[in-house]
């Protein structure tokens, strides 16, 4: 099972999603993250994401930003979009119905009424802790599904 977390910049939300899901699953599940935009390629996650992860006992400083590419459709079974913009961007890159089927909105997993993980990059008031909590809930559901072979 190979799971890819995708947001816009791959420095705030998807690195957290990657770190959180890794902490809830064993190593035979391969988890990675990428951004639809390439502005920060090669960089560490945003310091605010590193900080909130650390607060919850997770170290995400091994991660480096990379840009999503269409080969990711071949290399992953499930591609989780953090918000509906990422979802639409990914759909527009899909080459086939099979690619499209792999794309899911991560918050649909936790049955949230609001389906976007808010982008906290330009507005910290949206809250990195809030983002962490939303992703933690969704990743609990995903990890449970993995463990019961429902994914
Ligand atoms: P992310 O946040 O998609 O959660 O990583 C962003 C990071 C950087 C930018 C946008 C969103 N940016 O425009 O550089």
Task: Describe this structure as you would to a colleague.
The protein contains seven helices and four strands. With 151 residues, the protein is an alpha/beta fold. The protein has one domain (2-147): Rossmann fold, CATH 3.40.50.2300. A four-stranded parallel β-sheet has the order 2-1-3-4. Strand 1 (2-7), helix 1 (13-24) and strand 2 (30-35) form a beta-alpha-beta unit. 40% of the residues are buried. Bound molecules: 4-nitrophenyl phosphate. The site of 4-nitrophenyl phosphate has 11 residues, from loops.
Task: Offer a concise description of the structure.
This protein is α/β, with parallel strands linked by helices and about 150 residues long.
Q: Which superfamily, in CATH terms, is the homologous superfamily?
A: Response regulator
Biggest sheet, strands in spatial order? 2-1-3-4
Shape: globular
CATH-scheme architecture: 3-Layer(aba) Sandwich
Helix content: 40-55%
List keywords for this structure.
binds 4-nitrophenyl phosphate, 4-stranded parallel β-sheet, 151 residues, Rossmann fold, 7 helices, globular
Summarize the topology.
Blueprint: E1 2-7, H1 13-24, E2 30-35, H2 47-55, H3 72-75, E3 78-81, H4 84-93, H5 97-101, E4 103-105, H6 106-109, H7 128-147
The site of 4-nitrophenyl phosphate (4NP) has 11 residues, from loops.
């Amino acid at each position: 099972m190979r799971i890819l977390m995708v947001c816009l910049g791959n420095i705030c939300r998807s690195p957290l999603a990657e770190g959180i899901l890794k902490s809830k699953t064993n190593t035979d599940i391969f988890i990675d993250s990428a951004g639809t935009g390439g502005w920060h390629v090669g960089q560490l996650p945003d310091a605010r994401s590193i900080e909130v992860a650390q607060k919850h006992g997770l170290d995400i400083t091994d991660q480096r930003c990379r840009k999503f590419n269409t080969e990711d459709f071949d290399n992953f079974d499930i591609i989780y979009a953090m918000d509906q913009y990422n979802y639409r961007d990914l759909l527009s890159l899909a080459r086939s119905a099979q690619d499209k089927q792999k794309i899911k909105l991560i918050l649909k997993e936790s049955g949230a009424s609001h389906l976007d993980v808010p982008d906290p990059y330009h507005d910290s008031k949206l809250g990195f802790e809030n983002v962490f909590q939303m992703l933690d809930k969704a990743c609990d559901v995903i990890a449970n599904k993995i463990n019961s072979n429902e994914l």
